[in-house]
Amino acid sequence: MDLSASFTRALLSGFDRAYADLVRAATRSTGSREEAGDLVHDTWLRLAEHARSAPAEAADLAGAANPSQMPRDATAYLAVMAQHMALDAHRRRQRHARYLGEAAVHEQLAPSHAPDVADSVMYRQALAVLESALHSLPERCRAAFIAHRVQGERQPEIAERLGVS
Hints:
Layout: H1 5-13, H2 15-30, H3 33-53, H4 58-62, H5 74-109, H6 117-136, H7 139-150, H8 155-162
């Protein structure tokens, strides 16, 4: 609907009187008073931007507005406008939630972590240091360490097999 500048200005002039009613109506639509307040302010901003950008009409310049272009009930018109903006916000949240849900599913299906080249080099270096340390141990000590730490044997069993106390 193309609003005339005088109609928009008439709505803006009645906005202060209708503010509390608009917030109550928007709260019923959104379930949140804070969000309702934001929607009502956005409604006012949209009207103010339209009034500012609308071309001046001859009736406005003469100071007399056409009565057929004046709103009969500005509060009702503004309430419907705020409800439409609440519906737009709800649809926007649904699209956003759908997008986030799809992104979460995509992330869950993707590999959690693929090591990069630096990680691979770091692990190889750590493994080389461990092998070097194992080879520097005496044979029996190395056998006991591997049996206990790698193979999970109990210490009394290892001691009995190697003949140590």
